[in-house]
Amino acid sequence: MKPGKTYKYRICNAGLKNTLNFRIQGHTMKLVEMEGSHVVQNVYESLDVHVGQCFSVLVTSNQAPKDYYMVASTRFSKQVLTAKGIIRYTNGKGPASPELPEAPVGWAWSLNQFRSFRWNLTASAARPNPQGSYHYGSINITRTIKLVNSASREGGKLRYALNGVSHVNPETPLKIAEYYGIADKVFKYDTIQDSPQADIAHAKIVSQPNVLNLTFRNFVEIIFENHEKSMQSYHLDGYSFFAVAVEPGTWTPEKRKHYNLLDAVSRTTVQVFPKSWAAILLTFDNAGMWNIRSEMWERAYLGQQLYASVLSPARSLRDEYNIPDNTLLCGLVKDLPKPKPYSI
């Protein structure tokens, strides 16, 4: 880096399991963007980056010209793994100090950091649809879905679940079955309850396709509740959502009083700390079949995921494209004639 210059760094956790803490020796980082959204430009000495999350920061080369370490270390794991990289000043005059900056301890620090993240309302342009509006806090919630993760060994095999259902992919792909009008022969909608029983985290796990039937353009509240001792991180395909709260304990409707209904960041992943919950708000205005999954890939592979089916009743090309002509067909639809295409 050239002395006196400011550089933008993009930090992404593309790992499979562990939260990372990222810091730069002797430097601070000004957070400017998070998963596609401009944020209030707070300054941090280190950042916890949970699985699947990406941050953009500005770093100014305002220290003595020499080498400095970039450090990434795992968080919330029994064994701490550390990786280092070098930032080198132009015409630097010395090696990096062997004394690495320490990572924070405990997840309360990480929770407080989450609370400091705010959408930059002076930079993110408003859009006419509720999903992108600054006024998401004034939209009436039409459906609340609470998803509780659990783990169990069924028949000696480890499975992970949401609301007691461990997702398995059927022979006929879900969206293709739906497009061809034979969904009822492949899976059932809403096999899980929106408000599961209190002991669902300890209930027997059932392995089957897990598909929610979401009404097109409804404004929905999703609660991720974690009764386990491990960290969780969730991603939703096809949408950005407003991460309005992350708190310890269990969720109740009274907890809505704690939501950030003004400037929560519009993003695509949210972390859930041990024995805690997270709440997101979004409008399901993108027709299709969308995956909601744990970003811990062991968990997603072994069933901690589900699909949100969002059907447009108009069957219009304004809402959804036709299936591509070169789509490979299998299962029950392999020999079926193509259905009538969507139209304008």
Automatic annotation (TrEMBL):
Residue span(s) of domain Plastocyanin-like: 1-91, 180-313
Which Pfam family is one of those matched by this entry?
Cu-oxidase
Q: Out of the domains of life, which is the source?
A: Eukaryota
Family matches, as InterPro entries: Cu-oxidase_2nd, Cu-oxidase_C, Cu-oxidase_fam, Cupredoxin
PANTHER family in alphabetical order? MULTI-COPPER OXIDASE, OS01G0816700 PROTEIN
* Keyword Glycoprotein appears in the UniProt entry: yes
Give the species: Salix suchowensis
Q: Which Gene3D superfamilies match?
A: Cupredoxins - blue copper proteins
Protein name per its UniProtKB record: L-ascorbate oxidase homolog
Leader sequence range is: none
SUPFAM superfamilies, sorted: Cupredoxins
Keyword annotations for this protein, in alphabetical order, are: Glycoprotein
